[in-house]
Sequence to fold (106 residues):
Amino acid sequence: MRRRGPQHDEALRALGGAVCELRARNDLSQEDLGRRVAMHRNYVGSVERGEANLGVLNLLRLVNALGVPFAEFAEVWERQLRALQALQRASADRTMHHARQRQEAY
Fold:
């Protein structure tokens, strides 16, 4: 089985964040959302954590159950993705800063 690259993991985490945000906005539990789309609540949770690489039809079922147009879902996903990328850049910057400080100490 092929492993996903970091950019795919980021995209799936952002997708999960979008599902979670819109689910919360609609005051739905994972179980409620799962019932609406005939998915187990554990699967909905794995989607929200970015662990599941769901198919297009399942994604469309989720978006429909969340009651938003696909374009709005895509906007929320893109915002989530930018936020994750910003966090990763900040983390990488901190790591580099600490590495430089350690180097300078020697």
